[in-house]
Specification:
This protein is of the alpha/beta class. It has 4 domains: 220 residues, 3-Layer(aba) Sandwich (Rossmann fold); 123 residues, 3-Layer(aba) Sandwich (Rossmann fold), CATH 3.40.50.460; 204 residues, Rossmann fold (3-Layer(aba) Sandwich); 123 residues, Rossmann fold. The chain has 24 helices and 28 strands. Strands 12, 13, 14, 15, 16, 17, 24, 25 and 28 form a 9-stranded mixed sheet that branches. Helix 4 crosses helix 11, helix 11 runs antiparallel to helix 12 and helix 13 packs across helix 22. It is globular and about 90 Å long.
Length: 793
C-alpha cells in the first residue's frame, strides 16, 4: 500500500487537498447513552482532523464536560486515539447533563469553547444530544454577546469565534433516528442479542421450553424486529405495531401449532416498550404467565438489559463509524455560515448528509403517530428499511392453512453453488417459506449442479427449514461444479420434475452457472424458465452487487482474530503481525477487514505494489515504533501478488526491521468460511431471498402462455444485488461486460474508495476523492421511489 497520490484523471472528482483545516479547532464529544462503535467514530474524527491540519480537542463526559470546562477539554493527539477501535462504549465518557438544558449552562459551555477557539463541534449521540447541539448553535451569537457584556471575553474573541458549526453522528443502539438506515451501535447490539438467542435455543431444545426474551427499545422496535427475523422467532411485540385485539388466543394457537408440527421450542421476543392497541404495556412477565396459563408450556423469561450496550463493536459498526467520522470532518470543513447543522449517515451503502432538525422532527413524528394510535403511519415514518423488515417477518412467521394458499401449480427449485457462505441457509429458509406462501411447490437440490444432474431433487416443506437461520455453512450441500458439461442431464431433470423456475444461491460459480444456462437456452428449451441468482460468497467478488451474503460474517471472524493478535502484540511491544486473508483475487476482505481492525498496511491485487512500496511501508512502521504505539498489523490478500508471498513479505519485514521490531505471520484460512452467520447476513439473506421469490412469481405469471412457462428474454435470468441504495434485478447477460473472468472479480469495485480512508487513519499521506462524499439532502428525498426492479433494502 504505497502512500503516494494516485495520478489525477481529467476529472469531475474533487480532492480534499483543497480542504484545509489549518487554523480551525474541532471538538469531539459523545453524549447520551453509550453505543459500541462510538470510539471508532472518535478515532476517525480525531485522526482526520489532525490529518487536515486542524487542532482537535476531546470534550470528556459529554455536555457536562463542556459546561464544567477545565481538564475536561483536552487537545487530542494521533497516539491518544490508538487502541480505541476495538473497545466498546466511549473512552472519553458520556453523561446526561441537566445543566446544559439551562441557559446558564449553555453560557458556561460557550465560554469554555471560546477559550480554546473551538467553533466546530462533532457530536456523537442520540436525538436528544443532537437537538441540544442545534439549540446551542442557534443561540451562539446571543451567548457570545452576553459573554462580551459580562466582560468574560473581548470583542476580538467574539468576532473570531462568531460562527459555530455542528455535525452530528447518530450513536444509538435502538436505531431510532429517522433518515439513517443504521445508527452506530445497532449492529453490535444485534450481535449481543443473537449470541444470547443462539445459546438459549440449545437449552430450550433440550427441555422443550418456551423462552420470552425482552430486548431494549423503549420507543423503537428495531432491535426486537430484526432479532426476531434473524432467529426465526415465533412472535414479536414492538411499540410501532401493536398486535390486533384478541392476540392472546392467536399467539397461543400459533405456539401450539408449531409444537404439534414437531418443534421442540418457542421463542417470543418483546421490546421493552411493547404496547397493545389501547396503549397498555405488554410485559415479558405478562406474556410468560399467559403461555403458562393457556398452554401449560414450561416457560422462562430472559431480560437482556445492558448486555446489549456492551462488548466489542462489530465489524459493521467499526466501518460505519470510521466512514462517518471522516465524513463529519469533511462536512465541518465545507460548512459555511448558512449551512444547517447536519447529521452524516449511511443510506444503503452510501454516505449522505441530512439536515439535523429535519431528521429530529421526523423522529418526533413517529412518536406522535404512536401516541395518536396511527400505527401504520408510525411504521411508514420509520422508513423503508423498517417497513421491509416488518413485511418480511410477517411473510415468514405465519404459515397459512393450505386452503388459504393461492394455487399456483408452479414448481420452483432452490440450490447452493460454490463455496459455503454463512447466511445461505437463512436465504434457503426464506425462499422456501415465501414460495409456499405464494402457492408454489418448492424443491431442494442437494450438492449444487452436481446433485442436479444426478437427480438429487426432492420437495421441501415449511417445517423442513425450521431453525435454519442460525446455521452456518450450507445445509443443502454445495459444490463448485458448473452446469456446462452436464446440460443434457440437467435439462432432463428439469423435465422429470417439471421445474418451472430456478433460484441459485452462491458466489462467482453461481454467476457463471447462470450465464451458461442462459446461453444454453438456444439449444435447450428446458432452460427457458425464470432464473434468479442471489450472491452468497465471503469474497464479495460477484459483479452487480456491493455486498454478498456471508461477507459480513467473514469480516467479523477476521476482525475478532486481528483484535486478539493485536492484544498479544501490545504485551510484547515492537512486534509486527503479517496476516493473510482469503478472497481469491478480490481484496474486499483484506481492505475492509484492515479498516475495521486498524491495519497499518493492506496488500491487494487490485492496487499493484512493488518493492519500493514494501520498503516505504517498512520505514513507516519503523517511524511508528518510535512513538508510544509499538505494534503493527499488516494484511495481505492471498492472491495479491504471485511473487510477494506472505512468506516473502514476512522475511523482508523481519530482515529490514531487525533491531527495531520483530515479526510474526498468521494465515487465517478456513475459519473465515465457518461460524454462525452474523445478524446482518441472516437478515440480508432472508430479505433478498423473499424479494427474489416475489420476482420469480411475477415473472412466472408474465411468461405463462398456452399452458406452459416460456421465458427466453434476457431479463428473465437475473442477479439480485445491492447497488448503493437499492436492491436491483440485473440480467446476467448485461453483467458479463462488467466482469474480469480471469481473476473472477468485477471490473469496478466500490470499496476501493475506502482504501484512502484506511491509509489516512494509518497516517499515510494520500489522495482522497471526496466527490462521492455525502451531499446535503432532505429527509423526504432519502427514499427512492420503488420501481419494479428495485427496492430499498
Amino acid at each position: 500500500m504505497a502512500g503516494t497520490a494516485a495520478p489525477k484523471r481529467q476529472d469531475t472528482r474533487k480532492f480534499f487537498e483543497n480542504l484545509s483545516g489549518a487554523g480551525k479547532s474541532i471538538a469531539v464529544l459523545t453524549s447520551g447513552g453509550d453505543a459500541q462503535g462510538m470510539n471508532a467514530a472518535v478515532r476517525a474524527a480525531v485522526r482526520m482532523g489532525i490529518y487536515v491540519g486542524a487542532k482537535v480537542y476531546f470534550i470528556h463526559e459529554g455536555y457536562q464536560g463542556m459546561v464544567d470546562g477545565g481538564d475536561n477539554i483536552k487537545e487530542a493527539t494521533w497516539e491518544s486515539v490508538s487502541s480505541m477501535l476495538q473497545v466498546g462504549g466511549t473512552v472519553i465518557g458520556s453523561a446526561r447533563c441537566k445543566e446544559f438544558r439551562t441557559h446558564e449552562g449553555r453560557l458556561k459551555a460557550a465560554h469554555n469553547l471560546v477559550q480554546h477557539s473551538i467553533t466546530n463541534l462533532c457530536v456523537i449521540g442520540g436525538d436528544g444530544s443532537l437537538t441540544g447541539a442545534n439549540l446551542f448553535r442557534e443561540e451562539w451569537s446571543g451567548l457570545l454577546d452576553e459573554l462580551v457584556q459580562q466582560g468574560l471575553i473581548d470583542d476580538e474573541a467574539a468576532r473570531s469565534n462568531s460562527e459555530l458549526h455542528i455535525v452530528g453522528m447518530v450513536g444509538s443502539i435502538d436505531n431510532d433516528f429517522c433518515g439513517t438506515d443504521m445508527t452506530i451501535g445497532t449492529d453490535s447490539a444485534l450481535h449481543r442479542i443473537i449470541e444470547v438467542v443462539d445459546a438459549i435455543m440449545t437449552t430450550a431444545q433440550s427441555h422443550q421450553r418456551t423462552f420470552v426474551l425482552e430486548v431494549m427499545g423503549r420507543h423503537c422496535g428495531y432491535l426486537a424486529l430484526v432479532s426476531a427475523l434473524a432467529c426465526g422467532a415465533d412472535w414479536v411485540f414492538i411499540p410501532e405495531m401493536p398486535p390486533e385485539d384478541g392476540w392472546e388466543d392467536s399467539m397461543c394457537q400459533k405456539l401450539s401449532e408449531s409444537r404439534s408440527r414437531g418443534s421442540r421450542l418457542n421463542i417470543i421476543i418483546v421490546a421493552e416498550g411493547a404496547i397493545d392497541r389501547q396503549g397498555q404495556p405488554i410485559t415479558s412477565g405478562f406474556v410468560k404467565d399467559l403461555v403458562v396459563r393457556c398452554l401449560g408450556f414450561d416457560t422462562r423469561v430472559t431480560i437482556l438489559g445492558h448486555v446489549q450496550r456492551g462488548g466489542t463493536p462489530s465489524a459493521f459498526d467499526r466501518i460505519l463509524a470510521s466512514r462517518m467520522g471522516v465524513e463529519a470532518v469533511l462536512a465541518l470543513l465545507e460548512a459555511s455560515a448558512n449551512t444547517p447543522a447536519c447529521v452524516v449517515s449511511l443510506v444503503g451503502n452510501q454516505a449522505v448528509r441530512l439536515p439535523l432538525m429535519e431528521c429530529v422532527q421526523m423522529t418526533q413524528e413517529v412518536q406522535k403517530a404512536m401516541d395518536e394510535k396511527k400505527f401504520e403511519e408510525a411504521v411508514r415514518l420509520r422508513g423503508r428499511s423498517f417497513e421491509n423488515n416488518l413485511s418480511t417477518y410477517r411473510l415468514l412467521s405465519y404459515r397459512k392453512a393450505d386452503s388459504e394458499l393461492p394455487n399456483s401449480s408452479f414448481n420452483v427449485a432452490v440450490l447452493n453453488v460454490g463455496a459455503p457462505a454463512a447466511g445461505m441457509n437463512a436465504a434457503v429458509r426464506s425462499a422456501v417459506r415465501v414460495g409456499i406462501t405464494e402457492g408454489h411447490k418448492m424443491f431442494a437440490v442437494s450438492d449444487g449442479f452436481e446433485g442436479f444432474y444426478k437427480g438429487q431433487i426432492k420437495e421441501i416443506k415449511w417445517g423442513d427449514v425450521g431453525g435454519w437461520t442460525g446455521q452456518g455453512g450450507s445445509l443443502l450441500g454445495t459444490k463448485r461444479t458448473l452446469p456446462g458439461k452436464h446440460l443434457e442431464k440437467i435439462a432432463e431433470q428439469i423435465r422429470i420434475h417439471n421445474i418451472n423456475a430456478l433460484l441459485v444461491i452462491g458466489g462467482f460459480e453461481a454467476f457463471e452457472s447462470l450465464l451458461q444456462l442462459y446461453e444454453a437456452r438456444a439449444d435447450y428449451e428446458e432452460f427457458c424458465i425464470p432464473m434468479c441468482m442471489l450472491p452468497a460468497t465471503i469474497s464479495n467478488n460477484v459483479p452487480g452487487t456491493d455486498l454478498s451474503i456471508g461477507a459480513d460474517t467473514s469480516l467479523n471472524a477476521i476482525v475478532e482474530t486481528c483484535d486478539r493478535i493485536k492484544q498479544s502484540a501490545s504485551g510484547t511491544k515492537r512486534r509486527v503481525f503479517i496476516i493473510e486473508t482469503m478472497g481469491g483475487y478480490c481484496g474486499y476482505l483484506a481492505t475492509v477487514g484492515g479498516l475495521a481492525a486498524g491495519a497499518d498496511t493492506v496488500y491487494i491485487y487490485e492496487e499493484p505494489f512493488d518493492i519500493r512500496d514494501l520498503q516505504g511501508n517498512v520505514e513507516h512502521l519503523t517511524q511508528k515504533m518510535k512513538t508510544s504505539i509499538q505494534r503493527g498489523l499488516v494484511l495481505r490478500n492471498e492472491n495479491c501478488n504471485e511473487n510477494f508471498t506472505t512468506d516473502f513479505i514476512y522475511q523482508l519485514y523481519t530482515e529490514e526491521g531487525r533491531g527495531v521490531f520483530d515479526c510474526r505471520k498468521n494465515i487465517l484460512g478456513h475459519m473465515q468460511q465457518g461460524g454462525a452467520p452474523s445478524p446482518f447476513d441472516r437478515n440480508f439473506g432472508t430479505k433478498v431471498a423473499a424479494k427474489a421469490i416475489q420476482w420469480i412469481t411475477r415473472t412466472l405469471k408474465d411468461s405463462y402462455k398456452g399452458g406452459r412457462v416460456f421465458a427466453n428474454s434476457e431479463d428473465t435470468a437475473c442477479l439480485l444485488g445491492m447497488r448503493r441504495r437499492a436492491l436491483v434485478f440485473q440480467p446476467v447477460s448485461q453483467l458479463r461486460d462488467e466482469t474480469d473472468f480471469v481473476h473472477r472479480i468485477p471490473k469496478e469495485q466500490w470499496w476501493l474508495k475506502l482504501r484512502p480512508l484506511m491509509k489516512i487513519l494509518a497516517k499515510y499521506k494520500t489522495s482522497y476523492d471526496v466527490s462521492d462524499s455525502g451531499q446535503l439532502e432532505h429527509v423526504t428525498r432519502v427514499r427512492p421511489k420503488e420501481s419494479k426492479t428495485s427496492a430499498t433494502i
